[in-house]
Each structure stands twice: as structure tokens, then as C-alpha cells.
């Protein structure tokens, strides 16, 4: 297993500050493994809420949990939403000797009541798949093809990785979504998810997808929100300000895991990927996720005007404005769109991330940077 020291440090700080920490992320992203790694050498008690013996131990949850000390881990908390009120009672006691680490496979918007019931008592930590800092720059091709889910990335062969991803998709649609109380036929959701793969990296157009599936815009929007809330899809929101130009106000849609994208597009290896018309979009989404994992900007947006100017990623840090373009090209160049963004958004600096090997400036405010050196850019945002 690959060590994840950044997340271990996050959990340590969070549990020091707050009586409850919620570690959230997609299923099979390594939450349970990380929790056990964190608990090594500490007084820790684990409950798997999908395990019948553990559920029996929690028949009287207030008595059981109230008797424990140290770290108490509750895995798949959405299975017992009644525990939220129990945790609130326990952590409000002045002599409570425990800290609670709750693990969930959906966002607070999907796991109902977690934010409301535990307001002021819980801190959230979001776990993603492996990133380049964890796997090393030499693994960039495998990470792109297979994605960051631990069992997919660490599989012994490409066939094993693909088989795991196909099983994950089937289980996610057939079991995980219904367990969240969402009643949508798995065939409809799979069709939508596959169609969405062809829109990866594009502006969201609910009407177009709704017509293709023969459902309403409202229904198609609910499908998207489910995949977003379960960490499958990222809706990158648009930035807009008063610059005298018509700007796009719909989000951009990205698969958060490139391996799942490739499975739904039937791209099984690097050869088929490089020959596919969506290879540029695939690399853009992969590089975007890696940059967001590593740089961790407080808020992230894209920017686009109806006249054609566009920036893949825009964010602000300590009063300065930055942008990032992701180009699947060995020799990226300054475009008219970049020049317009520098002027219209008053950017302090723009980076062009590409799959090459060398970093170099091409303008006072524009730097070419290979993705393998993206971890070094995080020093600008600390």
C-alpha cells in the first residue's frame, strides 16, 4: 500500500481541533485503510456499519460509544444516520474522552443531516484517489490510464485494473446508489454516465442530454447532482465579473477519475487512448485533478466568454490572480485566448501545464510547466 502522509497529517490536525472528523470520498478510495493507518499506535476502536456483528454491538449506541476512549472510527456512517444525534449528545458532554472519525462515501449534501445535526462539531476531510506526489512522477502514464483508485492503480496487470473498474461501476450503480436512498434504474444511470463521458471537459448542456435520453432537464440535472455528490463528477463552476463581455455561466463537467472515464469510453490501453478524439480532453481532466489535489486552491473556477476566450482554471490566492491552461501538446504556445485572459482578468501569472519534460518562461507572466513538476508549483500557494 502507498503511504499517504498528507492525509495522515490532515486527520491528526482535524481531530485535534474538532471532536468529530468526517473523512469523505468515493467508495474504494482507501478511507478504511487510511483510518487504520492513522490508528496505528493509538487507542482506537473500529466499527464497520456494513458488518452485522458491528451493528449488533451498536444496538445501544449511546451506551456503547460513550464507554470508549481514544479514536472511535465509524465506517460508512450513512448506513446509520441515527448516529448523528447520538454523536452530538456524546461530544457535548464536558468529560467526553473520545474523538470520533466518521467515514462516508458521499458528500454532506447527499448524507442528509450530517452538517445540520453536527454543525460546529465536525470538520470535513475529503479523500481522493492517489496523486502524483503519492505515486511518484515515474508513474504518470499508469496513473492517467488506470486512475487513482488504489485497487485499480495497484493491479498486477492492465486487464486486472480494467476488470476492477468494470466491477466498481456495476456495484456503484446497482448497490451503492440505492443504499443512499436514491431510486433510479441502474441501466438509466449507466447510460447517462456513459453519455457524460463524451462530454468530459465540456460546458454542461442539460437540454441536449435530456433530449438524448428522453427525459426532462430536471431529471437529467438530478442525475448529474447524484454523480457529483458521490465524488464521481466534478462540476467546475464558471468565474464571471463585469468586464463588458458575455461570459459563460454554466459549469464545466469533468470525471474526477480518469480510469473510470477510460472504462466508460472503452479505452483500455495507451495505444487506444492516444488514437481517440477525446485524448486531449482526457489529459486535460487528469491534469486538472492532479493540480487541484496538489496545489489545493481555496476555490477554483474556469473562465469563458461567448466570443471564444477561455481559461481552464482560474483562482485567487492572497489577493493575487492565477490561471492554468492544460495543453496536450509537446510544444504549447501562447494563444489569443490566453492573452485576452491576462488582460481581462488582470492575471498575476499563468501556467501552461503540458506532458513534456522541461519548464521555461515564454513571457513575463506565462510559464510552461510539465505536469511532473506540478508538485513544485504548490510552493506558490502556501
Question: Which secondary structure elements does this structure contain, and how are they paired or packed?
Answer:
Elements lengths: L4 H13 L2 E5 L6 H9 L4 E5 L3 H6 L3 H6 L3 E6 L7 H9 L6 E7 L9 H4 L4 E5 L5 H4 L4 H7 L3 H4 L4 H22 L6 H12 L4 E2 L2 H8 L3 H13 L3 E4 L15 E4 L2 H7 L5 H5 L4 H17 L5 E4 L5 E8 L2 E7 L9 H9 L4 E6 L5 E4 L2 E5 L3 H4 L5
Parallel strand pairs: 1-4, 1-5, 2-3, 3-4, 11-12, 12-14
Antiparallel strand pairs: 6-8, 7-8, 9-10, 10-11, 13-14
Helix pairs in contact: 8-14, 10-11, 12-13
Give a structural overview:
- The chain is of the alpha/beta class.
- It has two domains: 122 residues, 3-Layer(aba) Sandwich (Rossmann fold); 250 residues, Winged helix-like DNA-binding domain superfamily/Winged helix DNA-binding domain (Arc Repressor Mutant, subunit A, Orthogonal Bundle), CATH 1.10.10.
- Helices cover 42% and strands 19% of the residues.
- It is built from 18 helices and 14 strands.
- It has a six-stranded mixed beta sheet. A five-stranded parallel beta sheet has the order 2-3-4-1-5, with helices on one face. The chain has a three-stranded antiparallel beta sheet with strand order 6-8-7.
- α17 links the parallel β11 and β12.
- The longest helix is centred in the middle third of the chain and has 22 residues.
- It is globular, with a radius of gyration of 22 Å.
Amino acid at each position: 500500500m502507498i503511504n499517504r502522509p498528507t492525509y495522515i497529517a490532515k486527520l491528526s490536525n482535524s481531530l485535534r481541533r474538532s471532536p468529530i472528523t468526517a473523512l469523505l470520498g468515493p467508495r474504494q478510495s482507501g478511507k478504511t485503510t487510511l483510518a487504520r493507518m492513522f490508528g496505528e499506535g493509538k487507542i482506537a476502536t473500529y466499527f464497520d456499519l456494513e458488518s452485522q456483528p458491528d451493528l449488533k454491538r451498536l444496538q445501544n449506541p449511546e451506551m456503547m460509544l460513550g464507554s470508549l476512549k481514544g479514536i472511535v472510527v465509524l465506517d460508512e456512517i450513512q448506513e446509520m444516520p441515527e448516529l448523528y444525534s447520538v454523536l452530538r449528545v456524546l461530544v457535548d458532554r464536558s468529560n467526553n474522552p473520545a474523538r470520533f472519525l466518521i467515514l462516508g462515501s458521499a458528500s454532506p449534501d447527499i448524507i442528509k443531516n450530517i452538517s445540520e445535526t453536527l454543525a460546529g462539531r465536525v470538520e470535513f476531510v475529503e479523500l481522493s484517489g492517489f496523486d502524483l506526489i503519492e505515486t511518484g512522477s515515474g508513474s504518470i502514464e499508469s496513473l492517467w490510464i488506470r486512475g487513482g483508485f488504489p485497487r485499480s492503480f495497484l493491479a498486477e496487470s492492465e486487464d486486472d485494473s480494467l476488470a476492477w473498474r468494470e466491477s466498481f461501476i456495476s456495484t456503484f450503480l446497482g448497490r451503492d446508489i440505492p443504499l443512499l436512498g436514491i431510486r433510479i434504474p441502474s441501466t438509466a444511470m449507466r447510460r447517462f454516465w456513459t453519455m457524460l463521458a463524451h462530454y468530459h471537459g465540456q460546458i454542461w448542456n442539460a437540454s441536449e442530454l435530456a433530449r438524448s435520453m428522453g427525459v426532462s432537464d430536471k431529471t437529467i440535472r438530478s442525475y448529474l447532482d447524484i454523480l457529483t455528490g458521490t465524488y464521481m463528477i466534478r462540476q467546475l463552476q464558471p468565474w464571471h465579473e463585469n468586464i463588458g463581455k458575455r461570459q459563460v455561466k454554466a459549469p464545466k463537467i469533468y470525471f474526477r477519475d480518469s480510469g473510470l472515464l477510460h472504462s466508460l469510453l472503452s479505452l483500455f490501453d495507451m495505444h487506444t487512448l492516444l488514437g481517440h478524439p477525446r485524448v486531449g480532453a482526457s489529459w486535460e481532466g487528469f491534469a486538472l485533478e492532479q493540480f487541484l489535489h496538489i496545489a489545493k486552491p481555496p476555490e477554483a473556477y474556469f473562465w469563458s466568454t461567448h466570443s471564444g476566450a477561455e481559461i481552464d482554471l482560474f483562482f485567487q490566492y492572497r489577493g493575487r490572480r492565477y490561471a492554468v491552461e492544460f495543453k496536450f501538446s509537446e510544444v504549447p504556445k501562447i494563444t489569443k485566448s490566453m492573452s485576452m485572459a491576462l488582460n481581462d482578468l488582470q492575471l498575476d501569472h499563468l501556467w501552461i501545464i503540458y506532458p513534456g519534460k522541461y519548464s521555461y518562461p515564454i513571457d513575463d507572466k506565462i510559464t510552461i510547466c510539465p505536469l511532473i513538476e506540478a508538485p513544485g508549483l504548490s510552493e506558490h500557494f502556501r
